[in-house]
């Protein structure tokens, strides 16, 4: 497969899969959706004890009380990291845009970039082994 085609597939596939999975899951949600900027979200607006909702996003203590099972003993560490990340995103002046730009686009792009870079280096090593 040509490197440009392989690279395009690796960059587009995760985003396409994310959209397909999210949108197919939307039909199975029975609770009242949360509305933001005129759009209905997938997660519920209600405070639910059996699964995460927008209340978990807006009030982290609800999620920690009802949904966290394995990391309770690590809250001192995870809270520091989580709170620092939220402060960083809010310090940009536009939390929503920064959240999407950094967590949805930039970090996955960086991971994919280094993954593809690793594949290219692996191909070069294989060519050198065959020629040497």
List keywords for this structure.
132 residues; mainly alpha; two-stranded antiparallel sheet; 2 strands
Provide an overview of this structure:
The protein is mainly alpha-helical. 67% of the residues lie in helices and 8% in strands. The chain contains 5 helices and 2 strands. A two-stranded antiparallel ribbon has the order 1-2. A hairpin with a 2-residue loop joins strand 1 (33-36) and strand 2. Helix 1 packs antiparallel against helix 5. It is elongated, with a radius of gyration of 20 Å. The model has no long low-confidence stretch (mean pLDDT 87).
What's this entry about, in short?
The chain is mainly α. It contains 5 helices and 2 strands, in the order H-E-E-H-H-H-H. A two-stranded antiparallel ribbon has the order 1-2.
The arrangement of helices and strands along the chain is HEEHHHH
Radius of gyration: 20 Å
Number of helices: 5
Largest sheet: 2 strands, antiparallel
The helicity comes to 55-70%
Extended strand count: 2
Give the overall shape.
Answer: elongated
How is the quaternary structure best described? single chain
Structural class: mainly alpha
- Low-confidence runs of at least 5 consecutive residues: none
Task: Give the N-to-C terminal Cα separation.
Answer: 23 Å
Q: Numbering strands along the chain, what is their spatial order in the largest sheet? A: 1-2
Strand content: 5-15%
């Amino acid at each position: 497969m040509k490197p440009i085609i392989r690279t395009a597939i690796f960059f587009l596939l995760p985003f396409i899969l994310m959209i397909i999975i999210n949108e197919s899951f939307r039909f199975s949600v029975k609770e009242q959706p949360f509305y933001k900027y005129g759009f209905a979200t997938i997660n519920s607006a209600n405070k639910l004890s059996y699964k995460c909702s927008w209340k978990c996003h807006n009030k982290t203590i609800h999620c920690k009380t009802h949904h966290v099972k394995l990391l309770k003993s690590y809250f001192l560490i995870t809270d520091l990291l989580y709170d620092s990340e939220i402060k960083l995103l809010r310090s940009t002046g536009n939390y929503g845009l920064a959240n999407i730009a950094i967590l949805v686009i930039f970090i996955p792009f960086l991971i994919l970039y280094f993954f593809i870079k690793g594949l290219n280096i692996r191909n070069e090593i294989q060519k050198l082994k065959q020629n040497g």
